[in-house]
């Protein structure tokens, strides 16, 4: 999710520049599939019971935004696509790392079985909250910057796209909160009363994921000035 999806996005940027201006019979089907994919994969996330499957589908949803921005072929679109790819690469990797910490202790990825972990791992619950807020593009992160660039680009390309991107953003916030509440809140099962403690290396790994997301917003040209 952090490397291969972004390699595909980079390939789209390189190929799209060679097809500029795009032939309409090539542009519109890909754009429709990208926008429809945002809604479909976001909706699928709401009914997932497997934690890793939920995170994987959320990656596909974000890449739908990236694909749509690349196809438009404007400086704002390419800047937003590059920004969101870097931001989501760190966010998705952090979510998979958190899912792995849960799996190593409970040996299950089913959301219905693993609940109430906030009572056992309060510090890890803080990482879950920060990562999920980042996934839904909270203001201090570059995720919001990338999504604003992309949504503005698509709105300038076609006004009705604001409806699809708006609904997609709403569903993203919904399944992010759903993921946090299903894993952290509620009463913990009796079979998980005794769990191994978290380790320093796990907290260090999550710090190295989330710290760049907070620091890069202080100097956006490092990632967003490539196409400006």
UniProtKB/TrEMBL annotation:
GO terms for cellular component: mitochondrial membrane. The keyword Heme does not apply. The keyword NAD applies. InterPro entries: NADH_UbQ_OxRdtase, ND/Mrp_TM. GO terms for biological process: ATP synthesis coupled electron transport; electron transport coupled proton transport. It catalyses: a ubiquinone + NADH + 5 H(+)(in) = a ubiquinol + NAD(+) + 4 H(+)(out). Its EC number is 7.1.1.2. It comes from the Eukaryota. Residues 1-172 form the NADH:quinone oxidoreductase/Mrp antiporter transmembrane domain. It is found in: Mitochondrion membrane. The chain crosses the membrane at residues 26-46, 53-72, 78-99, 111-130, 162-183. It is an enzyme of class 7 (translocase). One of its GO terms (molecular function) is ubiquinone binding. Keywords: Electron transport, Membrane, Mitochondrion, NAD, Respiratory chain, Translocase, Transmembrane, Transmembrane helix, Transport, Ubiquinone. It is a multi-pass membrane protein. Core subunit of the mitochondrial membrane respiratory chain NADH dehydrogenase (Complex I) that is believed to belong to the minimal assembly required for catalysis. Complex I functions in the transfer of electrons from NADH to the respiratory chain. The immediate electron acceptor for the enzyme is believed to be ubiquinone. Belongs to the complex I subunit 4 family. This is NADH-ubiquinone oxidoreductase chain 4. It comes from Podarcis tiliguerta (Tyrrhenian wall lizard).
